[in-house]
Design goal:
Elements lengths: L6 H23 L7 E6 L9 H6 L3 E6 L4 E5 L3 E7 L4 E7 L3 E6 L4 E4 L43
Antiparallel strand pairs: 1-2, 1-6, 3-4, 4-5, 6-7
Amino acid sequence: MTRDIDYGNLMHRAMRGLIKTVLQDVADQGLPGAHHFFITFDTTHEDVNIADWLRERYPAEMTVVMQHWYENLEIGDEGFSVTLNFGDQPEPLYIPYDAIKTFVDPSVEFGLRFENADDGSDGDDDPDPGKGSDEKTGDKPHHADAEIVSLDRFRK
């Protein structure tokens, strides 16, 4: 019996650790400059906690934007919680790290994509996002609706 090193899972764990570190820094210090995140996650994951109306609207996956307005960002070992504004309706979300499919910061063209073994991809593809259209900066968040977007909009 031979044993293999599971580089794919090790890499995914490390990349999710990077997301946790980045989110912890944002929780402690706020979003710097033009940084903002598009986070796509699997809404069918058993530990995802979102409002019923969001789950009905996005039965498979959902992309949220963390940019100008977010509250109650709390980072845990297994996932994070945040309150985002959907059409003037604040909604708390809990997203486990292993439910995340993509994490993109278009302000610096950084992105991570997590693929399942069933997808036939090796999981280390960069979605190669372009610049987002909203490049406002400032230390104080202001109210703006959360947006749900397709990442195709940011691909070159």
